TrEMBL record:
The chain crosses the membrane at residues 7-28, 40-58, 70-87, 93-111, 123-144, 164-183, 204-230, 250-268, 275-294, 300-322, 342-360, 366-385. This is Drug transport transmembrane protein. PROSITE patterns: MFS. GO terms for molecular function: transmembrane transporter activity. The keyword Mitochondrion does not apply. The lineage of its organism: Bacteria, Pseudomonadati, Pseudomonadota, Gammaproteobacteria, Pseudomonadales. Keywords: Membrane, Transmembrane, Transmembrane helix. Residues 208-398 form the Major facilitator superfamily (MFS) profile domain. It holds the Pfam family MFS_1.
Amino acid sequence: MPLNVWVLVAAQALAMCTAPFIVFIGSIQGRMLAPAPEYATLPVGLVVVGTVLAIKPATWLMERIGRKRVMLLGAIMGIVAGLMGGLASWTGLFSLLCLAAVVGGTGLAVVHQYRFAAMESVAPGMAGSAAARVLLGGLVAAWLGPEVAGLGSGAAEQYPFLVSWIALAAVQGAALLILAIGYRAGAERVQESRPGGGRPLREIMANPLIWAAMSAAAIGYAVMSFIMTATPLSMTEMVGHDLDDAKRVIQLHIMAMYLPSLISGWLTRVVGIPLMMAAGLLAYLGCIALAASGVSFHHYLSALLLLGVGWNFLFVGGTTLLPRGYRDAERFRVQGLNDIMVFGSQATAALSAGAILSWLGWGGLVMVAVPFLILHGLLMTLWLLRERTPEAAVNGRE
């Protein structure tokens, strides 16, 4: 792997901390500051809202001024989010906490583009492995994010989580330095092209392969976010588990999301993307079965571990499949649309998790995910049937 890929791995390990950080304390601090319990998960959902709102501007800027400058801007937004979250802890303003979550989400929109930058820095045959390597940075973020969040969570803290947010700003500053010093835009295999080139988007979207790729990432992310967002609240507020137990489950879940990246890029080449996606769907179904069968610590842990593995297989599979459906001149438009679908679905799932948990309980919440998994299975089937036709084979060679 070229140096650019390893720089992105290191930057991802730090910049991605915003996500597990807010997932862990967002609903807990939200419960402290929100005017009503129903709004407790709002900060977690608003992280994804910020991501969705920033995807189009981020890809638009990358197409015009290059990836590196926008990556640096994304790290700066992460620093601003940490400082705003600290101010929210100081003042006790729920609205400011929500705003910090939105700003943090804008930074994450840029972080999610790291995988495409890595894929464009290697030969086409290594694209899946490059994307998986970058996701490995999430292993560090999975552990570091909640640990940073726990720095200011003690009962004796006068301003709960103030130190946590300031520490998050410092972590984002370190990511900024790594990108500024290490990333080389000139090392990208696919150079920046003239904006607006390629086929009309309607023609691109007529390909079932695009829908299979996007649904793998979008449904995979939505189901993962839906269950993960509700987990800390379900464990601590509804079942009575300790905060440390909830932290451990979230940490191990996020590690399970990224640890398979050690082999998932290899699996895309050896067993193929369809089988890898099918394994991801089976892992999700196992997660739902375990979560619905009990509320002990081990039920939560086992379910969330399977949830993480399933997410990795679906997300890496979809990310690797997507470039097969567009040309170089179309990449920013298709990548932007893909991430809008992915994180728009995630935002809807995260924002609805608190209300559905209150209405249906934990067992009912996890069953809501089943129809969406069936939908992705149908879209995969449509793509595979289309791939078997002679016309699709000719188009693939073109």
